[in-house]
Structure formats: C-alpha cells, structure tokens
Amino acid sequence: MAGLCKVSLIGNLGADPELRYSAQGKPVTKFRVACNSRKRTPEGEWVDHTEWFGVTTFNRQAEQANEWLRKGSRVYVEGRLESRTWDSPEGKRFFIDVIANEVVPLDPRVRAEGELGAMPTPARAAAGGMPADDAESLDDVPF
Q1: Cβ distance 85 to 138 under 8 Å?
Q2: Which structural domain range is residue 42 located in?
C-alpha cells in the first residue's frame, strides 16, 4: 500500500524563480519559499521563526511560475516531498524538496503598464489556473 507524503505551504519567495530546461528540453523552475511562524519562549517572549523550503515545478506550471512570481511574492504551494543526498567537500549533504502539483500566487502582480495582471485565484487555480504536470526525474535537471 502506498503512503502519503504531502505538504501545503503559504509563504513568500526569497528570490526570483530560476527557469532552466532539462536535457529533454522541458522547463523546470525552482524557487525558495520562506514560511514564518511565532512561538513563545519559556520566559514568555515571542520569537519569530522562518523555515525555508525549496520548490520545483515542471512543464507549463514551471513557465507560469517563472512568469508570475518574483522575490517577495506570496504564494500557496501544494505538493509532495522528495529527498536527495549527495557528497560534497564538507561531507554528506541532505536536501528535502517540494515537488509542486499546485502553485497559486496570493498577491496581485502589477504589470509594467501599471494595471493589475490576470493571475489565478485559489478557486481558479483549482479549476486549472496553474495545472500540475507530471514531475520528471530530478536527475537530469541542471541545478
């Protein structure tokens, strides 16, 4: 029986998305999302905590994410977790990536002409605003 490894995030992009192409010429966009939370210390003080997540999108969704999202954009991401390990000069490294099946921009984007852009709302996204595409193997992605 298959398990479930699903994640939902709401946060802000830490930098502009990076669009690249796989060896087969398919678009792949990666970006990082910061999710902020607050918690109380034993002394009663509130402290802010930021958790960073790497997100990968494929195909049409990758092109749309690259077009619509910018550093600071608020975004909803839903997908599955995928881990990778590799050897580096500092030792063995471990990374968990979110392979997105849904990406929904949550704030309006202003076009260069100064008018509001047509971005999907969560309801439109569920009806196909930024459709999920079959994720490919990350082995051939040039990141």
Answers
A1: no
A2: 11-130
